[in-house]
Specification:
Blueprint: H1 2-37, E1 60-68, E2 74-78, E3 82-85, E4 90-99, E5 105-114, E6 122-126, E7 133-135, E8 140-149, E9 159-168, H2 171-192
Parallel strand pairs: 1-9
Antiparallel strand pairs: 1-3, 2-4, 4-8, 5-7, 5-9, 6-8
Helix pairs in contact: 1-2
Amino acid sequence: MQQGVERTATKLAIFAIAMFGFGYALVPLYDVFCEVVGINGKTGKVVEADIDRVDMDRLVTVEFDTNVNADFPWEFDSLSKKIAVHPGQVTEVEYVAVNRSDRRIVGRAVPSVAPTKASLYFNKTECFCFTEQALEPGEKKVMPVRFVVDADLPEKIKMMTLSYTFFEVSETDKVARSSSNENIKDNINNKTL
């Protein structure tokens, strides 16, 4: 009887650890899924501009919204509040981040596009959100975003908003993400062998 209880307890402990690991793996997998299918207004599709498909007869207004997570000591803003673009046209805007703390901070920007349907037609070719950004105390950094609003954007969409929220990336986050990514790679490698 004692052996059965120990075996059940061991199975429950292994199950709990596996579920914890699965929970960590879901975050990066969900982000990738959202970027691929455009859910939650996330963008991430990198494209080459098709210059022949610029719709010169149409203008779409793109607004720029910037935010920082609570207690994150950075100032973050776009140099342009809104611009009008021709669908298919490569456009570049710049953002500025300033570290107002007395320590080095690594941040990551999370993008979204509204309305959600418009995110399927908003493609970034260059973005500071693709990598983590490190700023030294008092450092100011100008960061470009290059994008294309797809020429196939439905006619009824006349305005969209590109929004970024910066979060601090802690050492714990980096270790968890790295560990989670290694587990995913190991699982993929084990299944392909």
